[in-house]
Amino acid sequence: MKRSYMECSSLCRLLMFPVLAVFFYSCDTYNFSHPQPVDKVSMYEFPNVFHGNWLDDDSEVVLISKNYIGLIMNQKVNVVRGIWPRKNEKEEYVYLSPTYKGFSSIIFDSLQKPIDTVANYVLNADHIYEVTDKEQLEQGYHYSTQQDTFTIIKKDTMLVDLGHNAFLKDIGDGFFVMNIRNQVLGQENRWWQLFVMEKKQNDRINIWYCSYGLTQNAAMFYEKQSDYYFNSQWTAAEMRKLIQQGAFEMCNQLQRDWRNATD
Q1: 8 A C-beta contact, residue 57 and residue 252
Q2: What is the mean pLDDT of residues 236-256?
Q3: In this structure, what is the dihedral angle of CA atoms 12, 17, 23, 25, given to the nearest 10 degrees?
């Protein structure tokens, strides 16, 4: 039986691609019919000043190379054996703390009566695999065990390559617009999303994302449940003005990781 969890829609989708979640922090989604701005050519290489290893606000390592941007993720996951929640001696259901996950889960109906059990994880040889809502398996990881708990150390590198569906546009004054097709974000449509990268100092990159003020722009023609749609034809000068007017806001700051600096 399919499990469903209601999350903040935009952020939930973006967390499927953690490298992008570094830049997008809002629960609102801003969709564009065309890459922006319209008067600048697409760039398929990051300028040299961007190259290197960076730390985001959560101290995750962001990699920027000539043709890609990526995120190195380290995550510890604790999985407890058995089916959860469990009943205690009072016949009350006991749930795991948020820092732990159950190996299997009970599914309840609208009256909170148990109706099914689903596996959250599968073991095979020396790997453990998480089961998705579509009952498919995620990547397998090695694990260690202590009593009734599996401990998984996830270390993944997620990359977005510059190309037909992701590229930069230089709007001047140290600002570059990153355009990303929604298909790269796991959405089944051909709209675009964008964020702005500001590079003025050698050891810092400022990340700007659309703010709610942008919805007052005449190019916004449709909205639904915090999804906003734009048919904009902005120039580079107009985009710089929008930033100055607060239609974009700085949502993240990358600091150069001098421990692993490449330039």
Answers
A1: yes
A2: 94
A3: 10
Place of tokens 């969709």: 31
Work out the average pLDDT over 152-160.
83
Give the model confidence (pLDDT) of 23-45 as tens digits.
655 568 899 999 999 999 999 99
Q: Which of 107, 101, 114, 93 is nearest to 149 (CA)?
A: 101
pTM of the model: 0.71
User: At residue 249, what is the residue type?
Assistant: E
Question: Residues 213-227: pLDDT tens digits?
Answer: 999 999 999 999 889
Q: Which tens digit of pLDDT belongs to each residue from 40-79?
A: 999 999 999 999 999 888 788 889 999 999 877 778 999 9
Structure tokens at 226: 């915090």
CB 226 within 8 A of CB 29: yes
